C-alpha cells in the first residue's frame, strides 16, 4: 500500500521530543520499514575554543539523536522481524582530522553503536548499515565574532 507523505518536523538534537515524534509516526503509519538517520551538525574549531556546551550539542545531534530515534522505532521492527536501519555518517567516524574533534568524536560514537546494533539485530532479520561518505558540501553561515552557535554547520 502507498501512503501519502506526511511532514513531521524534528530537531534531532532535542532528545526529549524524539520519543513523541516516533509515536506520531507509528500511530500514523503503523510501522517503519526503513529508517534513514541522515541529520547532522558539525563545527570547526580548535579544541580549546569549542565550549563543552557546544561539544554536548554536537553529541546530542550526531549520536544521541540517531540512537534515540532508532531505539524508539526498533521495538516495532523487532516485533515484525523485519526492517532496515541506515546511518548516514561520515568518514570522520573512522578517522579524525584537526579542528573537528567534537564532530569526529560524535561520528566515532555513532559508528560504534550501529556496528554493535548490526550484530544484535541479525537474529531479527533487521538490516543495519552505516554509510561513511568523504567530505560533502554543507550549508554554512560565516558567524559573527563571539557567536559560536552560528558556526555550526547544518
Automatic annotation (TrEMBL):
The keyword NAD applies. The keyword NAD applies. InterPro entries: NAD(P)-bd_dom_sf, Sc_DH/Rdtase_CS, SDR_fam, SDR_family_member_7C. Gene3D superfamilies: NAD(P)-binding Rossmann-like Domain. GO terms for molecular function: oxidoreductase activity, acting on the CH-OH group of donors, NAD or NADP as acceptor. Belongs to the short-chain dehydrogenases/reductases (SDR) family. This is Dehydrogenase/reductase SDR family member 7C. The gene is Dhrs7c.
Amino acid at each position: 500500500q502507498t501512503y501519502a507523505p506526511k511532514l513531521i518536523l524534528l530537531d534531532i538534537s532535542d532528545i526529549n521530543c524524539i520519543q513523541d515524534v516516533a509515536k506520531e509516526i507509528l500511530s500514523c503509519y503503523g510501522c517503519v520499514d526503513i529508517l534513514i538517520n541522515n541529520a547532522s551538525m558539525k563545527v570547526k574549531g580548535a579544541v580549546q575554543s569549542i565550549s563543552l556546551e557546544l561539544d554536548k550539542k554536537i553529541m546530542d545531534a550526531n549520536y544521541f539523536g540517531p540512537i534515540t530515534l532508532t531505539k524508539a522505532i526498533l521495538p516495532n521492527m523487532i516485533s515484525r522481524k523485519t526492517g532496515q536501519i541506515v546511518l548516514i555518517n561520515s568518514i570522520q567516524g573512522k578517522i579524525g582530522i584537526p579542528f573537528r574533534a567534537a564532530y569526529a568524536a560524535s561520528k566515532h560514537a555513532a559508528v560504534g553503536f550501529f556496528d554493535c546494533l548490526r550484530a544484535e539485530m541479525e537474529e531479527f532479520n533487521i538490516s543495519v548499515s552505516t554509510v561513511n561518505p568523504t567530505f560533502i558540501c554543507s550549508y554554512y553561515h560565516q558567524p559573527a565574532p563571539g557567536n559560536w552557535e552560528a558556526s555550526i554547520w547544518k
